[in-house]
Amino acid sequence: xxxxxxxxxxxxxxxxxxxxxxxxxxxxxxxxxxxxxxxxxxxxxxxxxxxxxxxxxxxxxxxxxxxxxxxxxxxxxxxxxxxxxxxxxxxxxxxxxxxxxxxxxxxxxxxxxxxxxxxxxxxxxxxxxxxxxxxxxxxxxxxxxxxxxxxxxxxxxxxxxxxxxxxxxxxxxxxxxxxxxxxxxxxxxxxxxxxxxxxxxxxxxxxxxxxxxxxxxxxxxxxxxxxxxxxxxxxxxxxxxxxxxxxxxxxxxxxxxxxxxxxxxxxxxxxxxxxxxxxxxxxxxxxxxxxxxxxxxxxxxxxxxxxxxxxxxxxxxxxxxxxxxxxxxxxxxxxxxxxxxxxxxxxxxxxxxxxxxxxxxxxxxxxxxxxxxxxxxxxxxxxxxxxxxxxxxxxxxxxxxxxxxxxxxxxxxxxxxxxxxxxxxxxxxxxxxxxxxxxxxxxxxxxxxxxxxxxxxxxxxxxxxxxxxxxxxxxxxxxxxxxxxxxxxxxxxxxxxxxxxxxxxxxxxxxxxxxxxxxxxxxxxxxxxxxxxxxxxxxxxxxxxxxxxxxxxxxxxxxxxxxxxxxxxxxxxxxxxxxxxxxxxxxxxxxxxxxxxxxxxxxxxxxxxxxxxxxxxxxxxxxxxxxxxxxxxxxxxxxxxxxxxxxxxxxxxxxxxxxxxxxxxxxxxxxxxxxxxxxxxxxxxxxxxxxxxxxxxxxx
Length: 700
Hints:
The protein is α+β, with helices and mostly antiparallel strands. The protein contains 13 helices and 34 strands. The strands form seven sheets. Strands 21-22-23-24-25-30-33-32 form an eight-stranded antiparallel sheet, covered by helices on one side. Strands 4, 5, 6, 9, 10 and 11 form a six-stranded antiparallel sheet that branches. The protein has a six-stranded antiparallel sheet with strand order 26-27-28-29-34-31, with no helix packed on it. A hairpin with a 2-residue loop joins strand 17 (about 335) and strand 18 (about 340). Helix 10 (about 420-435) runs parallel beside helix 13 (about 470-485). The N and C termini lie far apart (about 90 Å).
């Protein structure tokens, strides 16, 4: 298309374009020079800038224009424009919805520095309905491989050939011009951008006119990064895997909370973590030696940890999962892929800026299933947000407000809506009992177990496994009642639990089970309050083993790795012992094997005496619940009761046995000790005897 004839602007001073009328010889030399310059420019690759200010980050204050996604091809769709002056350059930046490694666009940047000018764009057909800038200088970026500057007479201006930087990873290009060339120009420099397919004369997208000194647009896209399941740490093995795991995550690569935190902090993107302060996770961080890193990020306001001190609070993660991303985007939109930010997320981000509601987009979710924790993906993904100022990532203060909104504190709780109806009917009576419990440490244990049983899961078999342990919640509630009004008690005729016995004093509590003659719950009172020192493994973690090995028909022993209680028999089916209760002891007798287990309270401790005509092997799982508030990496032996044996020997493994590996990344080639796979804070004693023996458990 022919350009408009050149019209000098009266009263203007422009050092870029000479207004003198040259003689014919001089003009001939100039045209020859320009022809050579133009040929070189069109055949040369784009130069890269070496200016000292080329790495200055782009800020929200540099943003001049947002444009909705409206081009048929994302590679030809301009969505944001920036303009600024640095110490050496006048710079323009254009964000595209997608920027290919090999650019497929011809980009035209019209620039107006003084009144009047041309409106038509050489080589480009623009509909008359599109408002156009009266420009003085036109920059043509042919397929982003060559660049040229033209005046209104279509004459090249080689001294103004722009320096171009094409960043396909972050979907933008920058144009840099020497500041000295515009020293006489007004600050009211204006720009307009047109985009067409390479070699085409058709406009694929155009941006409205914007000014160098214009104000940034207000309609930015709001985003919050919120994660849960941030460090599932039931065992040291899981803690290490979810912190910096090998062959972990959705892609089987390096994955974990460490990579999420590192990538986000490097990009200066604040995160809200909903459950890192739950005791097992937070204490695992202390054990691994990473708590100082967490506190440093908190001090830098890069990390907000939702409080996890109220045992009655359910993390409302399902509400987060059902928040709409945008009015038009499916809820299950994939934000990341192996290549990084997906086109769907980019579309959602810019569309949100133009949505009438402009709600906050929640990104994140359950970390073990999220690509945000992938070491190969997270750094570039977070840098995308840091490099696009039109995205308003919620800061420390806003995330704190969001934390209160999505995770409200309350003194009551309801059964989560995602729990199947038949399961909810079983849980409801126990929930009502939980609500009536007075505050206390054993009450806290009961609530923690309730949350474990009812936490979100899509695994139907896991729900089935959890329900086999529902009776244990009822027994924890009974232990919590005793802790509030400790009394001596000895009975095996319990109307609420025919399969159990209770042996208690004013200081010690033992909940015993007739099948297997085993100790389910052991608790004591101390000046610091009640604490539980005996529990089945499943009270700490349910379903740790491979689901392929589960056998639901075995009930509480569905998981083959379960340690059901202290002093449990190894044989299946479980034997039901005859019981005899007296004032301070209960005797369990198996008439077939002539084995007796005698449980008695001796002072502040519990004594267990075996009378057996054959060698005996048994297991005693010890815990310390609630998990103490001081670091678990110190004085671990002080957590457990003292064990005194007569006529027996023992060996012990604990969850602390892999200390030397915990400060390192997970190594699939390392041979970790058996305790590495025990839940926190479990210590297991393996007792062997040639016959009759005694065990005295003395809480410290």
